[in-house]
Protein backbone atom coordinates (compact mmCIF):
# COMPACT_ATOMS: atom_id res chain seq x y z
CA UNK A 1 0.00 0.00 0.00
CA UNK A 2 1.30 3.47 -0.94
CA UNK A 3 0.20 6.18 1.50
CA UNK A 4 1.03 9.85 1.06
CA UNK A 5 1.23 12.43 3.81
CA UNK A 6 1.17 16.13 2.96
CA UNK A 7 0.72 19.39 4.80
CA UNK A 8 2.40 22.69 5.63
CA UNK A 9 5.60 23.06 7.68
CA UNK A 10 5.11 22.15 11.34
CA UNK A 11 1.90 20.23 10.72
CA UNK A 12 3.38 16.97 11.99
CA UNK A 13 3.99 15.39 8.58
CA UNK A 14 7.39 13.91 9.35
CA UNK A 15 6.66 12.75 12.89
CA UNK A 16 3.35 11.14 12.01
CA UNK A 17 4.44 9.72 8.66
CA UNK A 18 7.42 8.03 10.34
CA UNK A 19 5.19 6.74 13.14
CA UNK A 20 2.57 5.48 10.70
CA UNK A 21 5.21 3.72 8.60
CA UNK A 22 6.62 2.07 11.72
CA UNK A 23 3.20 0.92 12.92
CA UNK A 24 2.36 -0.48 9.48
CA UNK A 25 5.81 -2.03 9.02
CA UNK A 26 6.54 -0.17 5.77
CA UNK A 27 9.23 2.19 4.49
CA UNK A 28 9.08 5.96 5.06
CA UNK A 29 10.52 8.49 2.60
CA UNK A 30 10.57 12.18 3.54
CA UNK A 31 10.71 14.84 0.84
CA UNK A 32 11.42 17.39 3.58
CA UNK A 33 14.59 15.54 4.57
CA UNK A 34 15.73 15.51 0.95
CA UNK A 35 14.89 19.23 0.59
CA UNK A 36 16.80 20.14 3.77
CA UNK A 37 19.81 18.15 2.53
CA UNK A 38 19.70 20.07 -0.77
CA UNK A 39 19.57 23.37 1.16
CA UNK A 40 22.45 22.38 3.46
CA UNK A 41 24.55 21.37 0.44
CA UNK A 42 24.25 25.02 -0.67
CA UNK A 43 24.79 26.35 2.87
CA UNK A 44 21.24 27.78 2.94
CA UNK A 45 18.34 27.61 5.36
CA UNK A 46 15.15 25.98 4.02
CA UNK A 47 13.57 29.46 3.73
CA UNK A 48 16.55 30.78 1.75
CA UNK A 49 16.56 27.69 -0.45
CA UNK A 50 12.81 28.06 -1.09
CA UNK A 51 13.34 31.60 -2.28
CA UNK A 52 16.38 30.56 -4.32
CA UNK A 53 14.28 27.83 -5.95
CA UNK A 54 11.76 30.49 -7.04
CA UNK A 55 14.47 31.76 -9.42
CA UNK A 56 15.70 28.34 -10.58
CA UNK A 57 13.01 25.66 -11.03
CA UNK A 58 15.56 22.90 -11.63
CA UNK A 59 15.70 22.22 -7.89
CA UNK A 60 11.96 21.69 -7.56
CA UNK A 61 11.89 19.53 -10.68
CA UNK A 62 14.80 17.45 -9.38
CA UNK A 63 13.21 16.85 -5.97
CA UNK A 64 9.67 16.33 -7.28
CA UNK A 65 10.85 14.02 -10.07
CA UNK A 66 12.71 11.90 -7.55
CA UNK A 67 9.69 11.65 -5.26
CA UNK A 68 7.39 10.85 -8.20
CA UNK A 69 9.74 8.06 -9.28
CA UNK A 70 9.77 6.65 -5.75
CA UNK A 71 5.96 6.70 -5.70
CA UNK A 72 5.78 4.94 -9.07
CA UNK A 73 8.27 2.20 -8.27
CA UNK A 74 7.82 1.27 -4.61
CA UNK A 75 5.05 -0.46 -2.75
CA UNK A 76 4.58 -0.63 1.00
CA UNK A 77 5.59 2.97 1.53
CA UNK A 78 4.58 6.13 3.35
CA UNK A 79 5.71 9.03 1.15
CA UNK A 80 5.74 12.38 2.89
CA UNK A 81 6.14 15.82 1.31
CA UNK A 82 4.14 18.98 0.65
CA UNK A 83 3.25 17.65 -2.81
CA UNK A 84 3.21 13.91 -2.08
CA UNK A 85 -0.54 13.63 -2.72
CA UNK A 86 -0.12 15.30 -6.10
CA UNK A 87 3.13 13.49 -6.99
CA UNK A 88 1.61 10.08 -6.37
CA UNK A 89 -1.89 10.82 -7.67
CA UNK A 90 -1.71 7.88 -10.09
CA UNK A 91 -0.31 5.40 -7.57
CA UNK A 92 -1.44 6.30 -4.06
CA UNK A 93 -3.84 4.01 -2.27
CA UNK A 94 -4.53 6.67 0.36
CA UNK A 95 -3.67 10.37 0.66
CA UNK A 96 -3.58 12.24 4.00
CA UNK A 97 -3.41 16.02 4.56
CA UNK A 98 -2.25 17.27 7.98
CA UNK A 99 -2.53 20.84 9.23
CA UNK A 100 -2.63 22.82 12.46
CA UNK A 101 -3.10 26.48 13.31
CA UNK A 102 -0.06 28.62 12.44
CA UNK A 103 0.55 29.40 16.12
CA UNK A 104 0.85 25.68 16.91
CA UNK A 105 3.01 25.00 13.87
CA UNK A 106 5.34 27.91 14.71
CA UNK A 107 5.75 26.58 18.27
CA UNK A 108 6.62 23.12 16.95
CA UNK A 109 9.15 24.51 14.49
CA UNK A 110 10.67 26.82 17.13
CA UNK A 111 11.15 23.90 19.49
CA UNK A 112 12.55 21.62 16.76
CA UNK A 113 14.96 24.25 15.44
CA UNK A 114 15.76 25.95 18.78
CA UNK A 115 14.66 29.44 17.72
CA UNK A 116 12.19 32.03 18.98
CA UNK A 117 8.54 31.37 18.12
CA UNK A 118 8.06 34.72 16.39
CA UNK A 119 11.03 34.05 14.13
CA UNK A 120 9.78 30.53 13.36
CA UNK A 121 6.36 31.94 12.49
CA UNK A 122 7.76 34.63 10.18
CA UNK A 123 10.02 32.14 8.41
CA UNK A 124 7.19 29.64 8.08
CA UNK A 125 4.87 32.21 6.55
CA UNK A 126 7.61 33.27 4.09
CA UNK A 127 8.28 29.65 3.21
CA UNK A 128 4.61 28.89 2.64
CA UNK A 129 4.20 31.96 0.42
CA UNK A 130 7.23 30.91 -1.62
CA UNK A 131 6.00 27.32 -1.99
CA UNK A 132 2.46 28.41 -2.89
CA UNK A 133 3.87 30.64 -5.64
CA UNK A 134 6.27 28.00 -7.00
CA UNK A 135 3.72 25.19 -7.07
CA UNK A 136 1.25 27.39 -8.94
CA UNK A 137 3.87 28.59 -11.45
CA UNK A 138 5.61 25.25 -11.99
CA UNK A 139 2.69 22.82 -11.97
CA UNK A 140 -0.51 24.88 -11.81
CA UNK A 141 -1.20 23.30 -8.41
CA UNK A 142 -3.22 25.16 -5.81
CA UNK A 143 -1.69 23.74 -2.65
CA UNK A 144 -4.73 24.93 -0.70
CA UNK A 145 -7.03 22.68 -2.76
CA UNK A 146 -7.60 19.66 -0.51
CA UNK A 147 -10.05 17.90 -2.82
CA UNK A 148 -7.50 15.24 -3.83
CA UNK A 149 -7.03 13.99 -0.26
CA UNK A 150 -8.87 11.06 1.26
CA UNK A 151 -8.64 12.50 4.78
CA UNK A 152 -7.57 15.83 6.26
CA UNK A 153 -6.74 16.25 9.94
CA UNK A 154 -5.96 19.08 12.33
CA UNK A 155 -3.00 17.53 14.17
CA UNK A 156 -3.34 19.96 17.09
CA UNK A 157 -6.43 18.05 18.22
CA UNK A 158 -4.63 14.92 19.46
CA UNK A 159 -1.41 13.95 21.19
CA UNK A 160 1.09 12.02 19.04
CA UNK A 161 0.16 8.49 20.20
CA UNK A 162 -3.60 9.07 19.98
CA UNK A 163 -3.20 10.62 16.53
CA UNK A 164 -1.24 7.59 15.32
CA UNK A 165 -4.11 5.43 16.58
CA UNK A 166 -6.50 7.56 14.46
CA UNK A 167 -4.29 7.20 11.37
CA UNK A 168 -3.91 3.45 11.71
CA UNK A 169 -7.67 3.09 12.24
CA UNK A 170 -8.29 5.20 9.12
CA UNK A 171 -5.95 3.05 7.03
CA UNK A 172 -7.44 -0.15 8.47
CA UNK A 173 -10.95 1.06 7.62
CA UNK A 174 -9.99 1.86 4.03
CA UNK A 175 -11.20 -0.78 1.57
CA UNK A 176 -9.15 -0.59 -1.65
CA UNK A 177 -11.92 -2.48 -3.47
CA UNK A 178 -14.14 0.60 -3.00
CA UNK A 179 -11.67 2.50 -5.20
CA UNK A 180 -11.96 0.15 -8.17
CA UNK A 181 -12.89 2.02 -11.31
CA UNK A 182 -12.56 5.40 -9.62
CA UNK A 183 -10.01 8.00 -10.59
CA UNK A 184 -9.88 10.56 -7.79
CA UNK A 185 -8.58 13.35 -10.01
CA UNK A 186 -9.40 12.35 -13.55
CA UNK A 187 -7.31 13.79 -16.30
CA UNK A 188 -4.74 15.29 -13.95
CA UNK A 189 -1.17 14.73 -15.09
CA UNK A 190 1.80 16.76 -13.98
CA UNK A 191 5.26 16.92 -15.48
CA UNK A 192 7.48 16.70 -12.43
From TrEMBL:
Broad class of enzyme this protein falls into: transferase
GO cellular component: cytoplasm
Gene3D superfamilies named in the record: P-loop containing nucleotide triphosphate hydrolases
Keyword annotations from UniProtKB, A to Z: ATP-binding, Cytoplasm, Kinase, Nucleotide-binding, Transferase
MF GO annotations: ATP binding; kinase activity
Chemical reaction(s) catalysed: dCMP + ATP = dCDP + ADP; CMP + ATP = CDP + ADP
Enzyme Commission code(s) on record: 2.7.4.25
Source species, domain of life: Archaea
GO biological process: pyrimidine nucleotide metabolic process
Family note: Belongs to the cytidylate kinase family. Type 2 subfamily.
Name of the featured protein: Cytidylate kinase
Amino acid sequence: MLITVSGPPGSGKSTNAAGLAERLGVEHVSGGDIFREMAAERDMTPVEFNEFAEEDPRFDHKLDGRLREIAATRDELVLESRLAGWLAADHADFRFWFDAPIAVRAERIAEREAKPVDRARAETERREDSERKRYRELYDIDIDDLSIYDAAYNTARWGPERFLDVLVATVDAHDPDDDEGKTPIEGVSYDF
